[in-house]
Amino acid sequence: MKVAGFLLLLAGWGIVLSAAALLKPSAARSVFALAGAGVEVMGLVLAIRSHIVPKGDRS
Amino acid sequence: MTDVGTALCFVMILLVPLAALGLALMNTGLGRSRSAAHTMLTALCIMATAALAYFVCGFSWQGVAGRAAHVLSVAGKPWSWAGAEAPFFSSLPLDGSTPSLVALLQMFSVGLAALIPLGAGTDRWRLGPACVSSALMAGFIYPLFAHWAWGGGWLSQLGAHYGMGRGYLDAGGAGCIQVTGGLTALSIAWILGPRRGKYAPSGMAAAIPGHHTVFVLLSCFLAWLGWCGLNSSGAMLFAGVAPGTLVLIAVNTMLSAGSSALAAAVITRARFGRPDASLCANGWVGGLVASSAGCAFMAPAVAALTGLVAGALVTLSVEWIDLYLGVDDPGGSVSVHAIAGVWGLLALGMFGRVQAAQWLAQLVGVATLFGFVLPVAYTANWLLNRFLPQRVSPEGEWQGMDLYELGAGAYPEFVIHREDFIQR
């Protein structure tokens, strides 16, 4: 899950970069960039969840 | 830049180490007394290592806008992705020119960025690995992002090539310094794990109070002075503002910090019945961090509002990260630097005196911080941890970092902790 989280972070960044580089200034470019940011948020959530130690194992 | 501007910029740059001193004192005060000398020494060594690593190779990666750089062509547009300066400052005239002032400011600010993870690793991060980790950050990770944002790189060109306002704007380093440091702090906290005794087996978090609240609060004043220097010199060198704008920058920096600290005081008063000194200090620094991006491009009222929101974000996220995410971050580095920094960057795009499309450039910058800096910082520190364990042994943690790594405590004539505070 940790690796998947970091891969999603990279993928989201790729979407944002692609939107910036390949699309002309328009609403579609903003939507694609926001979608990429959304993918990054999902990746961050996965990365965070993979690092949460189960309560019974904490010491 | 005129001679007066150069002199003013030089003086402002010399204030920046006070911000580092502020962070070092805050991290020391928020840690345990048995690790106080170790934390201060580690801060000093991190500053030294970061400056040397930046001197050896960091500056050559970062470069300066308008000078040599490695450039790719993407869809017919140039994307400058790294500087191409010679190592050891050998191609740099140290004569008061703009590139030389950039190099001087960056030697200090890269140390400031490298200090931030120390707040998350307090009481358990070994001295040697902390220095190596700082060298990795100062030599490679920080300079690459700083080139993109400040060295004429592709982020700064988003406006000219893709119609996104003025391109990614970050006058005082909210992204380059603070978020980079904050995300590295998150990586370090994940890799080190929590301090022994921080979490009960049931998952309940124990409050481990800092040992010196006076240090923590004193650090706020020092940090404010350092931040004025950082925001002013950064705005002059990287955003091209005139010396006359420095008054606005100082006003905005103060308003943001003040409203952020007051927001923290009100929130902790409402939640716990009394204002919490350490969270108010965190709020103050969070306000300074949030002011960095837009200090030269915001009206004072907007800066105060930005600080107000930053104070609320910092106060609430410190508790959330500690209790619900199980991340032991004694200095609150992730909240103060990463979360407040991201808010400051986005607030500039939404509320600053900038074009409407500026928010998209700021979003691309934030996406780059999470999509590039966080994975790279985590991977670099994870690999380092495989070869050079970063966390002290359980025996060392029980004994205290001062005695275990330095052989002497910070307060040898006082015994101010109980040995049964941590279970062996």
Low-confidence stretches of chain B: none
Number of extended strands of chain B: 2
Q: Supply the helix-strand structural class of chain A.
A: mainly alpha
Q: How would a crystallographer describe the biggest sheet of chain A?
A: none
SSE blueprint and pairings:
The complex is a heterodimer of chains A (59) and B (424).
Chain A: H1 2-22, H2 27-51
Chain B: H1 3-30, H2 36-62, E1 69-74, E2 77-83, H3 98-121, H4 127-150, H5 158-162, H6 174-192, H7 213-238, H8 246-272, H9 277-294, H10 300-323, H11 333-351, H12 358-387, H13 394-399, H14 401-406
Antiparallel strand pairs in B: 1-2
What would you note in describing this structure?
The complex is a heterodimer of chains A (59) and B (424). By secondary structure, chain A is mostly helical. Chain A is 78% helix and 0% strand. Chain A contains 2 helices and no strands. In chain A, helix 1 runs antiparallel to helix 2. Chain B has 424 residues and is mainly alpha-helical. Chain B has a single domain, classed as Ammonium transporter AmtB like domains (Ammonium transporter fold), CATH 1.10.3430.10. Chain B has helices at residues 3-30, 36-62, 98-121, 127-150, 158-162, 174-192, 213-238, 246-272, 277-294, 300-323, 333-351, 358-387, 394-399, 401-406; strands at residues 69-74, 77-83. Chain B has a two-stranded antiparallel sheet with strand order 1-2. Classes of the chains: A mainly alpha (59), B mainly alpha (424). Chains A and B meet through helix 1 and helix 2 of A and helix 12 of B.
Quick tags:
heterodimer; A: mainly alpha; 0% strand; elongated; B: 424 residues; mainly alpha; Ammonium transporter fold; two-stranded antiparallel ribbon; globular
